[in-house]
Amino acid sequence: MSTAIFTFCTLFCLSVAITPAHAQNSGGPLRPFKDELFSNQTVLSTDDGGASNVIDYNEMRDINGRDESPERRVKRDYVDLSPKKYQAMETIDAGGRALEVGRVGAASGQAFTVIFIHGRAGDRRLGMNDYTFGGNFNRLKNLAVANGGTYYAPTVRNFDEKGVADIAALIADARAKSGGRPVILACASMGSFICYGISRDQKAVSDLKGMAILGGAVDPDFPKSAYVKAKKPVWFTHGSEDKVYSAEQQATIFRSLLKAGLSTRFTLYKTGTHGTPVRMTDWKAVLNFLLVH
Predict the structure, then answer these.
(1) Tens digits of per-residue pLDDT, 213-230?
(2) Helix axis angle, 161-177 to 192-199, nearest 10°
(3) Residue in 99, 55, 10 with CA at minimum distance from that of residue 236
(4) CA dist., res. 270 & res. 120, Å (int)
């Protein structure tokens, strides 16, 4: 048995009938948006009482077959530009901190808020690009606007205490402007440093409804954080062949949280690499889970 296959099997080995992922994640308050293109992912196996699953990922199909120009521009069928009329690139004052953000949706009174944190060398433009990552950010925009929510993609200039403080201020600002409605924080790659920093901030934790980690770093202290103590939900997505952050170590953290009684999920993309979760994460399934738990 190859090392790659052995590692994969040590993560999730309980095989089940191959079924579309959306069949297992259909419940929740958000209305569908292009589910036949984004949510129709094949589940290869499931484990942990249904809390974890392995998704079939194939680069030739999921990049070359999906993109007009691989990794640069998705095919037009995957994109709906209607949210552009509710979109702004702006600098906002959040708790006295000037933050550059991309915003899609209302500036106040929103039904919920989603904040996406990019990784190293990124900025707000990454999370606002409609055509890269297979159109997945465009889907997130549409899910937000169609359901009365607001999506923020801020520029994070520092992945340290200052960056954490900036995002904590944005979370508090979004919650206040929405009248106390749910705020969800999603962090990709090195952006997970921000999520983990927020998880140790008691005030920020009280303002959050849920958290998603996409191909993120492994924080051994996360299970001891204020966020986990508050029993708030978290969803991890990861590529099995990620060479930057270990899928196996992240799965170990996930299982420790599950054992502690946290509402948590883990999606592993078989053969996926570091950037796969940003392209493949089923935003409707993730947001629905975080909003109702």
Answers:
(1) 999 999 999 999 999 999
(2) 70
(3) 55
(4) 24
Tell me the whole-structure pTM to 2 decimals: 0.92
Instruction: From 70, 53, 73, select the one nearest 61 (Cα to Cα).
Output: 70
Checking 61-68 for CB contacts under 8 A at 24+ apart, the result is 62/134, 62/279, 62/280, 63/134, 63/279, 66/134, 66/135, 67/134
Tokens of 163: 């960056």
Query: From the CB of residue 3, how many other CB atoms can be counted at a distance below 10 Å?
Result: 7
Q: Can you tell me whether residue 10 is helix, strand or coil?
A: helix
Q: Measured between alpha carbons, how far is 174 from 113 in angstroms, rounded to an integer? A: 7
Pairing between strand 97-104 and 183-188? Answer: unpaired
Angle at 273 between CA 34 and CA 192, to 5 degrees: 80
Q: Which helix (H) or strand (E) holds 45?
A: strand 42-47
Geometric angle at alpha carbon 196, from 207 and 245, rounded to 5°: 145
Pairing of β 42-47 and β 52-56: antiparallel
Kindly report, residue by residue over 190-203, the tens digit of the pLDDT. 999 999 999 999 99
Q: Quickly list DSSP for 96-158.
A: TEEEEEEEES-SSS-S-EEEEE--TT--HHHHH-SSSGGGHHHHHHHHHHHTT-EEEEE--S-
* Residue 290, Cβ density class (10 Å: 0-12 exposed, 13-18 middle, ≥19 buried): buried
Please tell me what DSSP assigns to residue 216.
P
